[in-house]
Amino acid sequence: NENSAFNFGQYTDDTQFARELLASIRDAGGTFHADKYARRLIAMFLAAGALDTTTQAPLVTGAVTPAIGFGRGTASLVQKMANGLPWSMTGSVATQGNGCCMRAGPLGALYQHRPHLLVEVARQQALGTHASARCQGTSVMIAEATRLAIKDQWNPYDPGAFPKVFCKRLSQTVRRVDIELANAILELPSYLEGDVAVSCIRKGLELGDRSWDGVISSSAVQASLYAVCCFLAHPDSFLDAISMAIRPGGDVDTTAAMCGAIV
Questions:
Q1: What is the four-CA torsion angle of 75, 110, 144, 102, rounded to 10 degrees?
Q2: How many other CB atoms sit within 10 Å of the CB of residue 131?
Q3: What is the pTM assigned to this prediction?
């Protein structure tokens, strides 16, 4: 589209944070090491000119690109990391944002045959930016949904035909982190019978999300629930699932990133 402000192939912060997460896991030999991920985030934000210029970021392996599409809150957290605050102490327990679950999808493929490690890594990678149990739960939810969506000889059923089976398995894993979120997942098949976006927004507000006046907000619960619903509605069509993900408006890049990872 010649009238667009973005070039074809432009990526968002969702893709960028996920890339650095995976690169840090590679650097750590296959598991999550908070210090290695923090170093990559520091390098990203330094390259964007978003941190105190006197900060000396440790060297990292592999190229990093300047951070894009970030808010002041995220830059503030990374500044704390650059100032030496441990990963376990930088994240806020008050935030309900979706910044932690937007990058969790690829973990489902990476740890396809190691579900217990998946849960641990999904939780730990969220801790430094989104420390609440609810946000950790949504991170586990998106990673596990991606893992369950992978078809192999041990997973022969069709999620689109049997959404209740998919949601029951997903709920069982998330229950280890957040019981209320796990219960909400069990309701998703009924959402598919009506206005999916409205149902997800309503449930998100019940669980503490903030409202963006009828569109999918940047809060973790409604965005992640809606992403899973888009997958269940169109498990075999990337285009249809992404189209559904962006249709309600709001924080569409994050909703589509999570949905796209699962599909």
A1: 20
A2: 19
A3: 0.94
